[in-house]
Amino acid sequence: xxxxxxxxxxxxxxxxxxxxxPREVVDLLxxxxxxxxxxxxxxxxxxxxKGTGTLRTGVHEKLARMDIIESITWPASASTxxxxxxxxxxxx
Length: 92
What we know:
Radius of gyration: 13 Å
Largest sheet: 4 strands, mixed
CATH class: Alpha Beta
Number of domains: 1
CATH architecture: 2-Layer Sandwich
Number of strands: 4
Number of helices: 2
Order of helices and strands: EHEHEE
């Protein structure tokens, strides 16, 4: 596979960003959230990790600018990722 070839990921309502480069995250997040809404997956868990908080901040800033987002819950519950994950509720 070439470096610029698209990566196919399953649309499950859970997006783990650990395997992606930071430069890929904004477009990936936009596309993934849009696909979830199209498939009526309205509760989405974004796993950004704890780390320094840079990725989380970028994810939250992008989500805040998306019209299809109804609400954002961070941190997630302890059993669903705590500080390392964010729940997103999409508009129907």
